[in-house]
Amino acid sequence: MTATVIDPLDELLADAFDGYVVRKDLATKFKGQYPVPTYVGEFLLGRYCASTDPDEIAEGLEIVQRLMSERTVRAGTQELFKARARERGSVKLIDLVTTRLDAKTDAYLAELPSLQIKDVRISPELVKEHERLLTGGFYAEVELEYDAVIAQEKNGRPFGVAGLRPIQLSKRTALEEMAQGRARFTAEQWKAVLLRSVGFEPEALSERARDVLLLRMVPFVERNYNAVELGPRGTGKSHLYQQVSPYAHLVSGGKASVARMFVNNSNGQRGLVCQYDVVCFDEVSGVSFDQKDGVNIMKGYMESGEFSRGRESIRADGGMIMVGNFDVDVAHQQRVGHLFGPMPPEMRDDTALMDRIHAFLPGWDVPKLHAGLFTRHFGLVSDFLAECWHQLRFESRWNKVAPRLRFGGALSGRDMTAVQRTVNGLLKLLYPGGEQDIADEDLEWAVRIALECRRRVKEQQKRIGSAEFRNTHFSYQLGEDDVEKFVNTPELQSDDAIASDPLPPGQVWGISPGGQDEHAGLYRIDVTEGPGSGVRVLNNPAPRAFVESIKYAEQNLYAQALHLVGERDPRAHEFSVQLRAFDASRGGSALGVPALLALCSVLMGKSLKGGLIVVGGLNLGGGIDPLYNAVDVAELAIEKRAATLLVPISARRQMNELSDEMITRINLLYYTDARDALLKALVE
């Protein structure tokens, strides 16, 4: 056995969770050697090797290897096990056991795939005790008996299940013990413990990769959690759902039966979503339902956690996870389409289905798996971890943190639900004990991840062309007087940069000249429109000076509508406005002209020029406010790498004071009134 270096975290873990830890590289020793998932080997390792003493580990390892060797059926040894059952009367083995009802004989029959036997007798009592036998089954230690008398009968079934022990922990106090042990770790240490417990070495991963791997755990602790993870091949997207927990079920690409997934109408048998905590569609691009309304049933279930069987409504709490591969890199995928492109044809452009997805995990942030990523340290035994996760599904942390959070106006009701579910799941992973106080930095960590992964869904809906999803500028405020913070999806072009490409209609860069108490600052105004009337500022709370700028812009739009936007009636539209600040300046004063241009741009459906910053305050009469610090404003625009600065003509003389070097780095455009500004700002 290879020696390993025990670090302080190993020692703390072994002391805090005596009897529940195992060297994770020991589990990988069995991977590939025996035809069973990792958690099966860990179940035995946890029983015999839960120690840091090298001698005890070595002794336990010998026992586990002997049991695995004796009780797992390798290819070509099926007949040997059958013969042993006949000679000894029974034999013990580890196998995936599934059961079906044989209507002809009114009896349940078990299937042991490793022995290739499909007609094993099993008592109704055992089936009733373990209903999951009927929906995909589970790994178990099986005592298989052989009855020579039955063998001599016509159509006799000599093999029978005499005993069954599921390979999972059913200890009611597991979560209490986890909560007690967790109190001895910092949040960062506990994240490392979770990652090591599923086989990864956190030191070998980037922070982004660690966050994605922790996100993969959320469906195990959050009921009815729906997520998508698409990315390159070989990043272990299905590993957690197949190898770590017996409460998860992996559905490989191909036909997905409505009867198997939800309910069998012929016999009322509940499907996978009722029997498992997590149902994962692997290679989702190849998945299709056997019935036309399969996707609709799935959408209804993802929304409410319920589905109908005739007049009866059935509730379940299994989460739906979809994982798949990009054939190209993420940047190219966005150039040629959208990030849901690899989904099946009936799902990839369905914005209603997307709206029910709580998180889109960036699978491209996880490196391809290699030996260096797997830990050789201690982690929690998988079945203990899985049992604690299962019990956490019935707890909540959201009510505890909700009063400390405020979200921006861009989040719809479904966005709020999705973000709450992700935050709740991450906090349950981090704080398995409900009594612990949740630190602000841990709450903010969870909120930023949740907003990013939900915004990624919204961005794809916007790409597909649905106007209702236009506003994707997700933000939050934490604490009493904290500032509003916006969350981006990193794979998109940075929102902080003044890019040379035109912004979408309704978006404009503007500089507030500031005032006595505030320096000049860069802002972006984002406006969306829909049916209704009036102008609504989404910032919460909205800066008073900016509200005044918006009021002046709105009144000028109504008064000068014919000159500005022609026959379009601005009073027949409701405008939603959001202000984003990129400097220390937060007031948003004297932004009337940029705001007016944004309103006109969205109403006309036309973009403003790329690389453009607009400057100027408005008054109610339509006049342009004087600009007193034009040079400061121009220098800030140059610092922000703008290509063009649109300023009032009254600032022309001040601009002569700009240095020769500065004046060559920006194009200055002057305007006389609001209409002139609009004409010069619009893309030709």
Question: Describe it for me?
Answer:
The chain has 684 residues and is of the alpha/beta class. The chain folds into three domains: 90 residues, OB fold (Dihydrolipoamide Acetyltransferase, E2P); 319 residues, 3-Layer(aba) Sandwich (Rossmann fold), CATH 3.40.50; 188 residues, 2-Layer Sandwich (Ribosomal Protein S5, domain 2). It is 38% helix and 20% strand. It has 29 helices and 26 strands. The strands form seven sheets. It has a seven-stranded mixed sheet with strand order 22-23-21-20-24-25-26. β18 and β19 form a beta hairpin. α2 packs across α3, α23 crosses α25 and α25 packs across α29. The longest helix is centred in the middle third of the chain and has 25 residues. It is elongated, with a radius of gyration of 31 Å. It starts with 7 loop residues before the first helix and ends with a helix. The model has no long low-confidence stretch (mean pLDDT 87).
Strand proportion, as a percent range, falls in: 15-25%
Q: Predict the CATH topology of the largest domain.
A: Rossmann fold
Strand order of the largest sheet: 22-23-21-20-24-25-26
Total strands: 26
* Class by alpha and beta content: alpha/beta
Detail the poorly predicted runs: none
Distance between the termini: 72 Å
What oligomeric state do the depicted chains represent?
single chain
Overall shape: it is elongated
- The overall average pLDDT, rounded, is 87
Number of domains: 3
Helical percentage? 25-40%
